[in-house]
Automatic annotation (TrEMBL), chain A:
PANTHER family registered for this protein in UniProt: HTH-TYPE TRANSCRIPTIONAL REGULATOR RUTR (PTHR30055), TRANSCRIPTIONAL REGULATORY PROTEIN (PROBABLY ASNC-FAMILY)-RELATED (PTHR30055:SF160)
Keywords per UniProt: DNA-binding
A Pfam family this chain is assigned to: TetR_N
Species of origin: Nonomuraea harbinensis
Protein name: TetR/AcrR family transcriptional regulator
Domain HTH tetR-type: 13-73
UniProtKB/TrEMBL annotation, chain B:
Sequence intervals crossing the membrane: none
Cross-referenced Pfam families: Amino_oxidase (PF01593)
Organism domain of life: Bacteria
PROSITE patterns (UniProt xref): TAT
Protein name: FAD-dependent oxidoreductase
Record domain Amine oxidase: where: 65-555
Amino acid sequence: MAIQEPKKRMRGSARRARITEAALEVFAARGYHATAMEEIAAAAGVTRSVLYDHFPSKRVLLITVLQEQNARLVEHIGARITGTGSPGRRLRATLDAYFSFSEDWPAARRLLFDHTDEDDPEIKAVRWGIREARTRSVAVMLGRDLRNLGLDPDTDAAHAVVELLISGTDGLAQWWARNPQMPREQLVDAAMLVLWNGLSHTPGRTSAS
Amino acid sequence: MAEQETRDNGQGGINRRRFVTGALAATAGAAAGPLWGAEGARAAAPALLKSSVTGRNVAIFGAGMGGLSTAHELAERGFQVTVYERKVLGGKSRSIPVPGTATGGRKDLPGEHGFRFFPGFYQNLPDTMSRIPFGSGTVRDNLVAASLTAIAYRKKFLRVPIPSELSNGLTPEVIQDFLRSAIIAGTTIPLTQINFFLSKMITFITSGPRRKLGQWENMSFSDFTKSEIMSVEYRELLTRMFTASLVAAQPDRANTRTIAMMFEALLYSGLGLGPYGPPDQVLNGPSNDVWINPWIDYLTGLGVQFKVGWSATGFDHSGGRITGARVTDPTGAAGTVTADHYVAAMPIERVMPLLSSSMKSADPQLARLSHLETDWMNGVMIYLKQPTPIVEGHLVYAGTPWALTSISQAQFWTTDFPAAYGDGVAKDCLSIDLSDWNSPGILFGKTAKQCTRPEIVQEVLAQIRAVTPNGNQLLPDSLVHSWFVDPAISGEGTPAVANDEPLLINSPSSWANRPEATTRIPNFYLAADYVRNNINLATMEGGNEAGRKTANAILDAAGSSATKARLYDLYLPKEFKSLYDLDDIRYQLGLPNKFDILAPYWP
């Protein structure tokens, strides 16, 4: 691919972007510990010294990629969710937004939420921040609906509901990665069945009113 | 009479409410016009001073942070304090409700112009707050930790991840590594420039006190960080954000000692070092409700008299002392008030015109006050129809020409916003600080000073949307209920635009022009943010610290044996003690700091 590009001097920022995109793929495929900087340099088509001109260490590179992909996730979801419509519609739009992110950026989802075994305080802090921001945005989005359920969004019970929602959705995204034959719409339907209607209700009946 | 009424404390303050003006009314014969008859007061003042053995009558001019803090320390120690305030109690820290917005028994919409930010490195002010009763606790309990303070930049949120522990102990190199990865991860600033910036910041935090004052005080932050030759992103995120956005001073007008010290304190507080609290704390309600009013109540209970609508117009200086303060009362009538001690607790631009040439020649530091500078940092409230907590804490909109910052308030308030305020339709307040009034905006190409109020609001919204992820969806016009631009601004959009409440900035070498709380006029004191203080920033904390210094000076002057008000120092890691010592030796030898290796600055 690089060969077909017109010969021009690649700007620093373009080269940096290429490095982080390559790093995303490699980190997501192999995990942090098993990845070597040489592999990333090779995948990005740059020399090792160019890589080190931008990122002084593997750790810093991972942190960068995590932050970038989190920003991508926030932007992706933010552009697709809706603040209006019925609560059911809003939940559906959010689930669909998350699954479409998994579909469009599978490596990003894997890196953000599946690999979490790095033993480094700074990486931990980044991961904590990402997780916290996500939990929080879901809690805010569902604030009104939680209140309708009689749950104050600041209580532990509300946090538990949010956690269940997030980890359930995450688990479903992982399952979908292994069972990609299922269309996204059906996946959202399945999630709504439990998350919205609840197990005790017959599917199809809009009961949460 | 004076002696009898100035008997010492013990039984609580309320019955000790002598105020000099009242005592003098009798002398003056209570003629028509102002109660306290100027002639009589002038004549009586010297006699009163001599007869006043204990010297415990204090007149404070200005009821902002400096004045209230002075009053607090002194009233608790049995002094008789009268506070004169030209405008409203609380100064720049007060709430400014939007008049006429309440319906159905609610309160007017709350306006928190220049939102209250209590970083973890404030120590004096939280201590004062812990001594103001509130319900069964204190006002200090109304401070809540905000988290996830963030920066919106080029449609992304940048957050600085704070590790719970530093992996290899506290050394300059460990700090540098941590900051390096945070900046690399959050920005696309070239690594060489990041390394340069960090070498300078590490240079600062390992500098000894002599170098800080002798070298960094005199250098602008833009020179220190060489921002002119760096990338746009470097200028916007590393230079302008810490100056224009946070303290309303352009990078070339802010001194390095002030700005880098704030950076250092934020860093230590973020890392959980020292005695510091969480890096970002806010009040859990409008400032007046959860802080200022309970404070006034408490001080009133201690016997402090508040005279609102009374402006000081000058001080009578004779025989080496202040013998009276000329004032106008709420009707505009002029007169003089007297006391044993006179405290000028108004901001710099208000105190300057009151200082006579005889006062300035008595104390040259008063003459040097004219060199201190102010700039504008005023608020715009935008009321929203839905709760919209953009982030859970303060948000800096980096790279916005008007240097905007904001906080979404309803999320922190214990009251149910629509039930408590306004017409029930407004559900949140986005409190925005506008810190650069001189740069052209993106919508009209005009500076904030050149815009009308509606234009200011449109421009502010446009700038926020331009840098915030999904900004247009997040803050559509349809979400806006109403808005309120700081009423201190007048004549906006005309050449006569003015600001009644500007903010001190710490320009290079300004320390030399900043006064102590005490002056060479033995009964005249200064208590405001421009007084030399540890925090060295124009802040509520600085005003509080100055108030403590003044109170201590008055305790000395009055020969009081009461315990002094405590002054808290900023935290410096003991691990770095030897580095500071070494650096000051290097400084005195004319050498650069040992970490200052990339284009070093020689003393």
